[in-house]
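Database export, one record per block. Field names are fixed; values are copied verbatim from the stored entry.
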Amino acid sequence: MGLWSKVKNVFVSANDDETPQKATFTTRENTVYAPCSGVLVSIQEVHDEIISSGLFGEGYGILPVGLDCIYAPCDARVTATNVTNHSIGLTTESGIEILIHIGVDTVKMNGKGFKRFVHANDNVKAGTPLIAFDSLGIESAGYENVIVITVTNADKFSHIDLVGESGTLVGGRPLVKLGDPILHVSR
């Protein structure tokens, strides 16, 4: 067993029926944190007209690196799920509405390669596992493997600061880890 396999087993159970362990990171109100580790890209770079035009709101795309699991980016209530498990909606106590969308056109996968661990109206804490996904399955099916995270009701706030940055760059882009701050919402 290689080193990565040993480390990965700490975070993800070998039994597919079990939920991955909760992640722990410090949070502040009105801040949205990275739901996974990866390389940040602008919304405009996501290869989907609706997302790149900003119709889903303000935020980032994240090219995932490491574990294939999306975690709650803040304390929130699950407000939207779907049968294909490729996206999830969350709302914070202060009214920030967040959409996390896994892949481009992955709705066409009909749920294959996705497993949701929460249900509509569940209250979740930052770091709670939300959805596991199969990166290789997404790519093998011919879809773009990018995690989109947006504030969908940005018009209700005075400003959304895109604060995702890192001292580590990959191809000139910030590499963020799960729990790094990426969006700050101002009233």
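Remark 1: The helical segments are 3-11, 49-52, 135-140.
Remark 2: The chain is about 10% helix and 35% strand.
End of record.
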